[in-house]
Task: structure prediction
Amino acid sequence: MKKQGKHLISSIMKGLSLSLRGYITLLSSILPYIDYYRGIRLDFIPREDDIFVVSYPRSGTRWIQMILYQLTTPGDMNIDHISEVSPWIEHFLSNHVMEAKDLEKYPSPRIFKSHLPYSEIPKGQCKYIYVERNGKDVIVSYYHFYQSCLGYKNSFQDFFKLFMQGKVQYGSWFKHVSEWRNHQDHPNIMFIRYEDLILNLPVTIDRIIHFCGFHVDKERMSDILKKCSFSFMKQHENMFDYINETKWEKECSQKLDVRKGQNTQARQLLNQEQEKQFEKEWGKYF
Result:
């Protein structure tokens, strides 16, 4: 009887131990989301002159960050990374790089980078600049990003399947873009095509100036256009790459992230069948 009793107690304790471990594991997985929700939804309060630069990843947010940095400051290139002056808001808050109170120290107008869908972006009387890039080019750029910065080892074909299923960081490109497109007529939202940055940068910068209500001396425009050109940013790519941003946060090793900036990368990797799959999915949303 004593052996049976000990065995019963041992079984109960084992069951409790497993249950406790399960709860701890579950709690560990939930806590980051609780912290993120608290930071982005409760603690952070947008100012009326805040500007959010939003896009699906690999679509040109850093380019717009650079433009806004040049338009709102003397544009000195003595910073280590663009995130110092234009934080990636959900990344910084969720990874405890900063807290909402730290963002209060930033002078107005504050410029935030984000990849959040419209449903999750902090709402206010502030302005939102959404950058949309050709989805096929996004796939290729995202694939190279996964390889160089996230250690992805599988083929492009495997990555294409994940992308089309929305099983990559920030989910479905189609949903992300379509959700923001549904609100593009809102007076506080401006849509920019990545391709327009390449084809007509001066006109695009003029649109941004008008949308944000900036007053920029004409004498500065030639310098601004020079510093916002892709060739100039390529020369200062340490200011814009993902790994250097992580290094700035956590002292990690460096890999460069500003690639070619082209808008025809899809032709290099997508085959005809993948083109058809993309167009079919596109037709469901647009």
